[in-house]
Amino acid sequence: MGAIAALVAGVLFGIGLAVSHMTNPAVVLGFLDVAGDWNPTLAFVMGGALAVTAAGYRWVLRRERPLLAPGFQLPTRRDIDARLVGGAAVFGLGWGLVGFCPGPALAALASGQPGVLVFAAALVAGSLLARLALARPGAR
Fold first, then answer.
1. Which of 1, 31, 14 is closest to 106 using CA atoms?
2. Which tens digit of pLDDT belongs to each residue from 96-123?
3. What is the torsional sign of CA 87, 90, 95, 98?
4. Is the pLDDT of residue 85 over 90?
5. pLDDT in tens, 48-62
6. How far is the C-alpha of 122 from the C-alpha of 128, rounded, in Å?
7. CB 42 within 8 A of CB 20
């Protein structure tokens, strides 16, 4: 049942990304270009997502446990370290350079556009390289 719920949630998320045009790098880059021809529409998308998430977290966390899991898996660390800052920087650079972040890129795979396929391949390769680098003794 958990796999079906995850599939439905993922498809719904992908549809939301497509409807909001977050799968279109030109729209995303227009949003990020605050000093040029700024396109503010994604601010409303993000604001709406933030409002729903804030309300949803308050509602869901009142429960003793999730519907389809034995317990909640919430982050416990609160410190800012080099891995967090480095990961955020790489994410931001990638998003700013090509207009994709992982979620919208995976949703855009259905378009079959060559740029999306190249980005997804680079995403997988980068993830594997990071996993290998962090698997070394003393890397964490």
1. 14
2. 888 888 888 888 888 888 889 999 999 8
3. negative
4. yes
5. 999 999 999 899 999
6. 10
7. yes
**Confidence (pLDDT) at 113:** 86
Tokens describing residue 130: 């990071």
Structure tokens at 86: 């480095």
With cut-offs at 50, 70 and 90, classify the pLDDT of residue 139. Answer: low
The full DSSP string for 46-85 is HHHHHHHHHHHHHHHTTSSS-TTSSS----------HHHH
CA 10 to CA 108: how far, in whole Å? 13
Length of the chain: 140
Token pair, residue 7, equals 């599939």
Q: Which of 104, 94, 93 is closest to 21 using CA atoms? A: 104
**For all residues of the chain together, what is the average pLDDT?**
89
Domain boundaries, the chain: 2-135
Q: Which two tokens stand for residue 54?
A: 């804030």
The set of residues, in sequence order, having a beta carbon less than 8 Å from that of 138 and lying 6+ positions away, is: none
